[in-house]
Amino acid sequence: MTSTLNDIETLHHLIGGEAISTANRTGAVYNPATGEQTGTLPFADATTLGHAVDIAAAALPGWRATGMAKRANIMFNLRQIIVARRAELAAIVTAEHGKVLDDADGEITRGLENVEFCAGLVHHMKGESLEQASTGVDVSQIRQPVGVVACVTPFNFPVMVPLWMVTTAIAAGNTVILKPSEKVPSAVLWLAEAFREAGLPDGVLNVVHGDKETVDAILDEPRIKAVSFVGSTPIAKSIYTRAAANGKRVQALGGAKNHMVVMPDADLDAAADAAISAGYGAAGERCMAVSVVVAVGDIADDLVARIGQRIKDVKVCDGTTPGADMGPVITAASKQRIEGFVAGAAAEGATVVVDG
Fold first, then answer.
1. Which tens digit of pLDDT belongs to each residue from 67-100?
2. How far apart are CA 331 and CA 96, in angstroms?
3. What is the sign of the dihedral through the CA atoms of 274, 277, 280 and 284?
């Protein structure tokens, strides 16, 4: 399906509080439930990123000197803004990621936990001291911001992961370059505006969009002192290697899927319910998704039958539909890849119990 030009929103970077669009390279943003293009997204090149770093570096001294109480108050304000408008934010998540509204709202709750944690930074940022660590020697430990830091966040949690990374970095006195997944940019722009409304000075949080070229520019930019990433394992390894070689602190979290082990004495109805919830929630696009169920002993056939019965009751549709259990996967390419797994399973010796 296609959209008319009037329906397609032109999105932007947010640098120093200013909406900036670069026309050299762009990407399309889609509603995965309909396949319609909903937005056009500018991709940042090294020049645009350099401008964002200029702004973040200029904002750093003032933000670092800002008192802890004022930083904490901004976090309190941010929490109130998100709580008051969480339905609006959840709808944005569903429109670009596809997860059902209840799941999107749950993601916001998890993100708010970290906002609340950072509201207590007056305590968390305390250092330590030890008198007479050795004869005549006292030891003191203080916590100071690293400087300009970058956060590269994934498509599967457009609110939760940015709030986990960004609030902690900002609360500690750093300034931030945030590069969200190009598939789900609008939730991050919403959050950045909420930060401004909460009282965060311009330049402390800057949003740039893009793809590998943009991320490579982040990894090679010497003024960015630390990088935090969540995504696939191959990309995590690549980012860790390149950023570390450039002398940056790196947090690179790769893909994670769970195995579920069902013992012979388990409640099989409860186990089947748990398998469905973990496998189909958020279309399986989360780190806590169960990809493999291991049945111990002679319970496998009974467990598979119960799971098969429940799969038929999973309501798969647009995430905004009341009673929806599962929305679409993120892209048409993802859908095709999953269909290929199902189509190839029988040829590899598997028994296909339920086929879409």
1. 999 999 999 999 999 999 999 999 999 999 999 9
2. 10
3. negative
- Helix then strand then coil, in percent of the chain rounded to 5, is 45, 20, 35
Radius of gyration over alpha carbons of the chain, in Å?
A: 23
Residue 201 lies in a domain: yes
Q: Output the pTM of the full model.
A: 0.92
* Beta-carbon contacts of residue 324 (< 8 Å; ≥ 6 apart): 100, 101, 315, 316, 317, 318
Quick one: 177 exposed, middle or buried, by C-beta within 10 A (0-12, 13-18, 19+)?
buried
Q: Which residues contact 207 (CB under 8 A, 6 or more apart)?
A: 13, 14, 15, 178, 179, 180, 188, 189, 192
Is-contact 145 57, C-beta < 8 A?
Answer: no
Q: What is the pLDDT of residues 130-170, one digit of tens each?
A: 999 999 999 999 999 999 999 999 999 999 999 999 999 99
- 118, 151, 287, 317: the catalytic one is 287
For residue 340, give the 3-state DSSP assignment.
Answer: helix
- Chain mean position to CA 347: 36
83 & 183 share domain: yes
Distance (Å, whole) CA 329 – CA 106: 18
DSSP 275-287: HHHHHHGGGG-ST
Task: Please check whether residue 352 lies inside any domain of the structure.
Answer: no
Q: What is the pLDDT of residues 251-280, one digit of tens each?
A: 999 987 789 999 999 999 999 999 999 999
Q: What is the pLDDT of residues 202-219, one digit of tens each?
A: 999 999 999 999 999 999
The domain total for the chain is 2
Q: What are phi and psi of 143, to 5 degrees?
A: -110, 125
Neighbour count for residue 343 (Cβ, 10 Å): 11
**Average of per-residue pLDDT across 171-183:** 97
> Do 53 and 99 fall within a single domain?
yes
| Residue 297 to residue 336: CA distance in whole angstroms | 34
Task: Give the mean pLDDT of the chain.
Answer: 94
Task: Give the pLDDT confidence score for residue 1 in this predicted structure.
Answer: 43
User: Is the same domain home to 243 and 303?
Assistant: no
Asked about 287 being catalytic, the answer comes back as: yes
